[in-house]
Amino acid sequence: MHERTILDKILDRDNLNQAFKQVKRNKGAAGVDGMTVDELKIYMLRNKEKIISLIRQRKYQPDPVLRVEIPKPNGGVRLLGIPTAKDRVIQQAIAQVLSPMFDKQFSAYSYGFRPGRYAEMAILQALEYLNEGYDWIVDIDLQRFFDTVNHDRLMNLVSRTVKDGDVISLIRRFLVSGVQIDEEYKETVIGTPQGGNLSPLLSNIMLNELDIELESRGLHFVRYADDCIIMVKSEMSAKRVMRSVTKFIEEKLGLIVNASKTKVTRPHDPTMKFLGFAFFKEYQTKVYKAKPHPKSVENFKYKLKQLTKKNWSVDTKYQVERVNQVIRGWINYFKIGYMKKLLSRVDSHTRVRLRMCIWKKWKTAKNRRKNLISLGLDKYTAYKYSHTSKGTVRIAYSWVLSTTITNKRLAKFGLISCVQHYKEVHA
Q1: What is the per-residue pLDDT for 316?
Q2: What does the pLDDT read at residue 149?
Q3: With contact defined as beta carbons under 8 Å apart, do 142 and 258 qualify?
């Protein structure tokens, strides 16, 4: 019996089923063919054998990637490529087999898109370096990394480990499948679409070359996908490292370093932001700690504001569920950051905004009076305030709503407290 090739492992029934389940879990939008994840199951049942046959014959042709623009919180857009649902299954199947092969080659200081590794670990490593005195930071910014990867360089790196021509051919087909922008097809001569299931692994394979170079120079660094900071002990070293590393990235890896954003900086610099975190030195202990960067806080508040708009006519229970989702997600990500005072302020502001939404939903004076009485207000005061000329915002801040729609009542309604959730994740 012949030894199973890498392609055999990729096309193995269990591996493809696992890939399908992962794509279904991830949900995601439809690609250029309009097929949703929900429609994928029937399609795969009908066409799986045909797809496998085409892949084995090297005749499988991936669809172009749908190019969409995602607005960034600080302005500008991020270009995202959405492969079709069936292509996502094949990419996922490839990634599941290749990831364990490559992961053992990757640096201990690379944290992005790897099993059992998280942004939190990258931040803790950075703090460790800062507290050892490596507090001059070279912040490397790669310009449109996913759009500038050289295919030949990348495939050369992949083929050093993957000794299977069929797999190499299949990966290259995904790289050159092209993009569709507003009904117009465009070839992809360079780049790997950000958004594909295979892209994170391919980016790590490419940037592992940078990790190897930094380790060989004995430098202290932390990398999460294309976010990389190098930490040294003096300004002079930092400037020297920035020049030489930029040269290596551009000449050896063929990538573009964004000169306007790549800089030598310090932990307390307001513009210093790594994976959404900022660093500060605690006054009493003189120890560096992490906290959410002001821009991340701004983004968090903006999301909560959008979910507590007074003219959003949805059921309050649903509104509270959506608010809870944002709170949980944000705190779970930033839990190692110092932010108790901030969360206390966010809590009180969110409650006020929800009171404002509830008051607006009560609409009529009659309805407001009835609800205020049922919440314990005496009839005279309830009548007086149900006919108030005060605006929604003013009434939301008033004692009338804070003593009727109390914090306790909002909690009973399901609203979670940021402070409480922060304590729970630390318990």
Answers
A1: 87
A2: 79
A3: yes
Non-local CB neighbours of 407 within 8 Å, separated by 6+ positions: 351
Q: Left (φ > 0), alpha (ψ -120 to 50) or beta: where does 278 sit?
A: beta
CA distance 145 to 222: 17
**38-75 burial, b for 16+ CB within 10 Å, e for fewer?**
eebeebbeeebeebbeebeeeebebbbbbbeeeeeeee
Write the pLDDT tens digit of every residue in 326-383.
999 999 999 999 998 999 999 999 999 999 999 999 989 999 999 999 999 999 999 9
Q: pLDDT per residue over 134-154, tens digit each?
A: 999 999 998 877 777 788 899
**Geometric angle at alpha carbon 16, from 13 and 18, rounded to 5°:** 110
How large is the greatest C-alpha to C-alpha distance in the chain, in angstroms?
90
Judge contact between 82 and 64, C-beta under 8 A.
no
Is residue 69 within 8 A of residue 128, CB to CB? The reply is no
User: Is 50:60 a contact under the CB 8 Å cutoff?
Assistant: no
Which tokens belong to 387?
Answer: 């006919």
For tokens 């490839």, the residue is: 94
What phi and psi values does residue 310 have, to the nearest 5 degrees? Answer: -70, -20
C-alpha distances in angstroms, 356 versus 245, 309, 359, 387, 400? 53, 9, 5, 16, 12
- Yes or no: say if 278 and 290 are a contact pair by the CB < 8 Å rule: yes
- Strand arrangement of the beta sheet that strand 227-232 belongs to: 220-224, 227-232, 136-141, 263-265
In the three-class reduction of DSSP (H, G, I as helix; E, B as strand; rest coil), residue 179 is classed as strand
